[in-house]
Amino acid sequence: MSDTSEQEQPQAKEQPRRRQARGERRIAQLLEAAARVFCTTGYTAASTNAIAREAGVSPGTLYQFFPNKEAIAIELGDRLVHDMRETYGEALAPVDPATPLEEAIGSAIDRFITFNTEHPVFFALMHGPDIPGRMAETHDQLHATLIGRIEGLLASLMPGATPADVTRTAHICLGVYKTGLELVLAHEGAERDAYVQEVKDVLIRYLTPLMGDRPGRD
Asked: Which positions carry the signal peptide feature in this UniProt record (predicted)?
């Protein structure tokens, strides 16, 4: 009896793990399908039926994991925000004051553009006119944190600026980036690359007079 129970116990533990793994794969499948639908139709026009159809499952299967499309969008948004926080943590770390402005701006923009081009649903959800549920609060928190990170980067580039100057400059930089990002995402290939370079050039030309004497300047 004891030998049999000892043999059955590992199997009993393994089954829940397998079910959990299958559930996680199904959730990932549904979230990927939802991302495609939200990018194509927008959040408001999207439906759970459309998401289920895109995922190749029945609506009943979808409802086993999510009660409605808002829950799907919130889960998707939470995961994207987590990834985004890691991205801007790397992209907007303070830099050595000796770093050329073109290098500092170019590196940060490249990381952000790469994230958004790999996850276009982030822009569709976070910057669309119909942000669902609590995602509006998440977006506001992300915006505030992002401004703080940009201020930290600018403070390392503008050591003589006042806090008010740095904050104002950070808001302008983020506004320029968001406007440029919309144009970047609307194009592909070489034309997209050209728009990315334009965004960098605009920011560099705006910031250059504010930087004072820096490496690479005449």
From this structure: none
- For the whole prediction, is pTM greater than 0.85? no
Gyration radius of the chain over CA positions? 23
Within a domain: 130: yes
Pair 33, 42: CB distance under 8 Å: no
CATH number, domain of 156, equals: 1.10.357.10
Q: 163-189: per-residue pLDDT in tens?
A: 999 999 999 999 999 999 989 999 999
In a domain, 218, yes or no: no
Mark the ranges of the chain whose per-residue pLDDT is less than 70: 1-19, 91, 94, 128-129, 132-133, 212-218
How far, in Å, are 5, 49, 95, 175, 185 from residue 120 at the CA level? 51, 21, 28, 18, 7
Domain annotation covers residue 41 = yes
